[in-house]
Predict the structure.
Amino acid sequence: MNFTTPLAVVPRIGPVYQKRLKAMGITSVRDLLFHFPRTYQDLSVITPLASAKEGEEYCFKGTLGGLEERRTFKKRMSIVESILTDKTGSMRIVWFNQPYLKETLQQGQEVFLAGKVVRDAQGVYLSGPSYEKAGNNPIHTARLVPIYQETRYVSSKWLRSIIYMLLRSLENLQETFPAELLKEQGLPLFKDALWNIHFPRNQKEAELARKRFSFEELFSISLFVLTERKKLSEVKAPIIIFSPDIIKRFTAKLPFELTDAQKKAAWHILKDIANPRPMNRILQGDVGSGKTVVAAMASLAAVKAGFQVVLMAPTEILAQQHFRTVGQALAPFKITIGLLTGKSDRFISPKLPNDFIEISRKKLLEKTKEGTIDVLIGTHALIQDKVKFNNLALVIIDEQHRFGVQQRKKLQPKTDLIPHFLSMTATPIPRTLAMTLYGDLDPTVIDELPKGRKKVETRIVDPDQRKKAYEFIRKQVKEGRQVFVICPRIAAPEGGEPRPAISWAGNEVKTVKEEYEKLSRDVFPEFEVAMLHGKMGAPEKEQIMRRLKRGKTNILVSTSVVEVGVDIPNATVMMIEGADRFGLAQLHQFRGRVGRAEHQSYCLLFSESDAIKTKQRLKALLESENGFQLAEKDLQLRGPGDFSGNKQWGLPDFAMENLANLPLVEKTREAAEKLLEQDISLKRHPLLKKRVEELREKLHLE
C-alpha cells in the first residue's frame, strides 16, 4: 500500500465510507493521511479516581465491573452502566444510547476511560466517556489525542483508527526534501513528521511536524512560482511596438484626465509588451481606479501594431460591461470588437461604433479566425477549442489570476509565440500572497482614485434602526437616486416553506428572493424593485441591467454578482445584508459600486452577529478607504483560505494558514531560490519536481 492507493482497496473503508470521504475531498491514501488534525485533546495525564472533582474532564485507568443495560420509559433511551475501579477507589460509569457496549466491553477488563465527571441524584459519575482497552499504544485516550475536521457521519474516532492502521502498513515513505535542507531548517524526516502530526507524544512533536509540512508546502509553492518565471523567460512573445501618437490621441479623447498612477501603470505595460519575453503582469487597483482604461490603451496599442486582443471576464455581466466601456473608448479608432459569452454573441463595427450588432456564433468565430475581429471580449467560453485567432498577442483577464502558459498557447496554436498576459484585480493582494500564490506575476498598482471622487460614508446599522434606514433609502430614491441591496444567498434551502430569513450558524441570513418580495410588496411598493442573481438566464439579466442603467429600476436586490463590473453612476446607496458573511475585500468592492459620480454616497452594513471578530472587521471598513490596508486586515482576521478562496487554490488548510506568516514565507522563498541556483531544472530532486508539476495542475487549472 502506498500514497496513490485508492480508498476502494483499503481494508475497513467500504463503499459507504468511500462516498462520505469523497464528499470531504478525500479519495486516496495520501488525501487521508494529509487530513491533518485541527487540534489535540490532552488526555495524557492518568488521574486516580479518588482525585476526581465534579465538573472536570479526566482520563482514568481502571478495571471494569459488570455492564448492565436499562431503558428509560419516557424517552426510550438505552442506558449502559458499570463501575470502574482503581487502587484509589471506584466510580459509576454511564453511557447513553450505546447498547452495543454490553458486547464490546467485558467485566474485569482493564481500560482507559476519558470523559466528564458529573452528578445526579445517585452521586457523581463519569458521563459517556470514550473508552479503549488499556495497552502500550492507545490512540483514543491516555495521550495527546488528535481531533480532526469531521462530519456527522465521519467521526474523529473513526479517522484515528483508519489513519493509525494506514501509518502502520505504509511502505516506502520517500523523503522529498534534501538532507542538508532538513538539517539547515531543523525539520524532522517525512516519515517521522507524518507519524507525529497524527499521533505525537507531546505538543513539541506536533508543532515540529506541522512546521515541517507548512514549510514543505510553502517551499513547493515558491519553487513553482520561481520555475514559472524561468519558464516564461525561455519562451518568446510577439513584439508590440506602440505608437506614441496613437496613445496621445487616445488620452486626448477621454472625457477625463488620467491619474498619475494610471499613466505609470500604462507605461509599465506598454514597455513590457514591446519586449520579446511574454509579459506576465497583474494590475491592481481599487474599484473605480480606472484599470479598464489602462487595459483599453494596451489593447489599442496591440491592435494598431497589427495584432488581436482577447479580454476574459468571470461573469456575463462583467463581460458585457467591458464590451460597452472598451467599445466606447476604442470607437474613434476604427476597431472591431466582438462579444462571446455562453449565450450572447455580437460585435461593434468601426462603421457603426454605437450599435451592438447581433451575430451568429459561427460567423463570430469565422471573423475571429480571419483576424477581422480585433478585440474579442467574453467569459470562459473564450477558451473553447473552436475559438481560433489569427494573430493573438495580448490576453487580458479580469479577476482571475491563474492563467497558465498552456492556456495562452491553446488560444494561439499556430505559432510558438506566447501572447502577453495582463491580469486585473480590484482585490489588493497582501504581501505574503504576492510572494507565494502570485509570485510569478509582476505587480503594478493604481493607488489613486480619479480627482473629485467623494468618500463613501460607511455606517454599521443596528437591527433596531432598520426602519430608519428604509426611510433614508426612500428619501434618496425620491431625490432621483438608485439603490443596491446585497444578500448572501439566492433563496432558502429546498425542502421547506420559504421564510423571511433562514438560520445559518445561529444568525438570520437574508435571501435575494425573499428580500425582493418583502421590499417590493411591503416596504417600497411605490418604487420599481428588481432582482438579480447568477442563476438567471443571460437575456433576463441583460434586461434587468438595461432598465437599471436607464434609471427605470429604483432598487436592485442582488447577490454578489454585482461585486465587479456594474457601473451605475446614479446609485448612491449600497445596503449589505449579512455583512459578516463577506470578507473585507469583498465588502470594499461592494462599496465601490456607489460613489461613482458627483452625488454623496453611502454604504449601510447590516449584521445580526454579536461576535467580537465580526465587529472588529466591520469597524476596519469604517476606518479605512484603503483597499490594501483592508486586504491585510482581512488576512489577519479571516485567514488566507477565506481571503483567496481555499477551494480555488486546492491547498490544504495548514498551508493556507501559513500564507499569512511573513517570516515563514520569506524563509521558504530564500530556501527555494538557493536550491534553484544549484539545480535550476530540479534534475537532482525528482520528487520535488513532481510536487511542482502537481502544483502547476492545481494552480493553473490546466
Remarks:
- Confidence is low (pLDDT under 50) at residues 494-508, 641-649.
